[in-house]
């Protein structure tokens, strides 16, 4: 087929900028550090990078509270460092997509400052100011309304009070955001990850939300508003027009934090997003292959475009702890699923060495606003410190935000000085250096899978020829043209008989015994192809 684009044979890798590599020794990751690790990323094989927000920000929500869309935060470097990074990434054949936060701005942003200091300012209508709050709750806990600093009204924020929601009904907001996208397109980025794209307030403040039996608010009227679709179409149309002028293609992925496929589907399409960053797999909390299989089938059935495949991000606990319970073999099996299933695969830094969760020992060690808010909420409800810590830990996204473990030196080679966040409380204490020296390591397994995924057209572009689950033995076949690849993954703790059918083996995980080549060991993986010299 003729409509293949570069992002289909791209393996994306999310860089949480403050935790990847510190270049100047202040304990915070930055562009200089990241650029110095591009060779590493090239060796690993990932060819698409997603960079989390790096714009000037008070970092109440670690950069998802943008104070200026046209610059780089001094913690992360300068615009020149950014340009150099893009240039070096491109030189190494990697594409770069950046995270843009469209739903809200920091209350330090000039728009909000002007809106709050002068009720007659044109920026007043960039936000939602009212005399009194409605009942909508914030995703970080508590009311979604806060009193404006010096005035008498309240303003709306779906997240922290320091993240004021923009009024997307206002054409001026949409135009300003398009100017922002143009600025970064001109700088050479290859696409965008639109943060919480289904949250944009396009229909204003409407009906109250219902609550469930536990009294928890169901976000029925504040998200997925009908007015969002034309907004998304306008943004995507703008980028596609730019693409047409440049005779190139940009990748547009939008975060839609929902698992209801009927809600996801309308965001995807030729005049909408290329793919939605959907949580059908990512939100699975304890590993259940039946559930994963069901989600794969449902996504296949209900999404017209490709799904995204990931089990890790900066918003969730690490899969090594959450799903694999520190079991390396299980992590290898999950890696095969992540990279071989049909869809756009997103890896998260540190996943390739099996990094575990970081468990902050007390509230002072928690950096995540969501955790801190829940702690304060619990205390205000009369819970004791221990219970409040428990509530906070449950919500705490710092688990996956600790710094990259490069080697055994102090601060793991991430920085020369004390990092901004604590060290992962690791069981295996994996690090890149050791794993690269061990050909049997998880790192090498990821590397093999990544290159296979990039280089084999059936894995890049192919549809499912077969998708089945038999007693925890997952069998996927992907076909493109006359290329056919079979993937068998044993998600059980028993060995499983498989039918090799004399297909040529391309990749196997450790543990297949030469005496019993037809048996997959627990968590074993076998990948074969049907046609000789198929690629
Ligand atoms: O996440 C949106 C989102 O849905 C999460 O906040 C989610 O509700 C939460 O993590 C569940 O634990 C995006 C960003 O990825 C996140 O880091 C930001 O905090 C958020 O938007 C606000 O910008
Ligand atoms: Ca730094």
UniProtKB/TrEMBL annotation:
Coiled-coil blocks: none
Gene3D superfamilies found in the cross-reference section: Glycosidases, Oligo-1,6-glucosidase, Domain 2
Record keywords: Hydrolase
Domain Glycosyl hydrolase family 13 catalytic: 14-401
SMART domains associated with the record: Aamy
GO biological process terms, semicolon-separated: oligosaccharide catabolic process
Keyword Hydrolase included in the entry's annotation: yes
A GO MF label: alpha-amylase activity
Assigned protein family: Belongs to the glycosyl hydrolase 13 family.
PANTHER family named among the record's database cross-references: ALPHA-AMYLASE FAMILY MEMBER, NEUTRAL AND BASIC AMINO ACID TRANSPORT PROTEIN RBAT
Record protein name field: Glucohydrolase
